[in-house]
Fold this protein.
Amino acid sequence: MSSEVKVPTLGESVAEATIGEWLKQPGDPVKLDEPIASLETDKVAVEVPSPVAGVMGEQKVKVGDTVEVGAVIAIIESDVAVAGPTPVTEAEGKSAPLAAAASGAPASPPAAAPEGESSDGSLTLSPAVRRAVLEHGIDPSTVKGTGKDGRLTKEDVLAAAKAREDQPAAAPSSAETAPRPSLSGERRTERVKMTRLRQTIARRLKSAQETAALLTTFNDVDMSAVIEARNKYKDLFEKKHGIRLGFMSFFAKASVLALKDVPAVNAQIDGDEIVYHDFVDISVAVSAPNGLVVPVVRDCDRKSFAEIESAIAEYGKKAKDGTLTMQDMQGGTFTISNGGVFGSLMSTPIINPPQSAVLGLHRIEERPVAVNGQVVIKPMMYIALSYDHRLIDGREAVTALKIIKEAIEDPTRLLIDL
């Protein structure tokens, strides 16, 4: 009996995807709900599970093809017996050692399946693990999996790669020691098709520039008070909440104050109407293997510092593992992008449509500043607010950024909502 594998529902406003990779090939045994293909959508990678157990049949589409929701992409033959070792009867099992003993040959023990390998001889790897395997050139069948049911994790592959690097280099063979032709004058080019996510990023950012009236206002922030508070309470914070206290929660809470006082910065344009929000859902820009993604920390105006830090940490982990979902990415009324983690001193971030503003954070560096007529060294950060001038006036943008600056320089304001 044959069963069709269809493209699952991908999320709100997402009607199609691209076949990123086939995880199973025709003839491979497949378990119920085992991923057989990876789809690339505009926002995240989605695995397609098998609806039945059986054997992988015909693949209806190729890698790189665009498919719509509900389209049939493969066939699973659920009535085909999976090839395996011939069963051994109890009598045969008992007679084998006796025959070996009679002939004087030692009985060979049954071969054990490699660790992390299923009984059908196949390995199921998540997209993040597959990327790590390809990047580091690791044979997954030689690595012991520590995940659920012995499955490989990204950490297992990285540990195997590190262990291989730590081993002394083997003596080169004669073929390796042979002189190679000089490549000093070689000039090469390579063409790689853009992933669907990268195409979407390019299209959305270009659309933002063409549609919105973008403008950026800057300010600088003295980070002394936040650094002092973080150093003073970070150990107690982590002990109580099980999460590290970072700077992002301070800026998220400071942004909440600004967005509540200047509602236009938290609004968006829909046709000829302005949509105001009485909640604050902050999109946090996170670097993922395939590009920049912006999962949403919802209800920041009602979340505690610990809840915000936990949400950001979880999204960061999911982004690296390639497990972000459509629900994680949908919505958002304001964005915070921290280019400082990569060493950026100053930038003009681009808004994330249909949002109307984005806060850009940058690296902290000690600089001389004037305080009460004296030049002192302070840990300073440039912050930038890019906004859609069609909706937000300069006065409102500058006011919002000034509120953020004052809340960071005097964190007590965050407690008394000032």
Notes: The first strand starts at residue 2 and ends at 6.
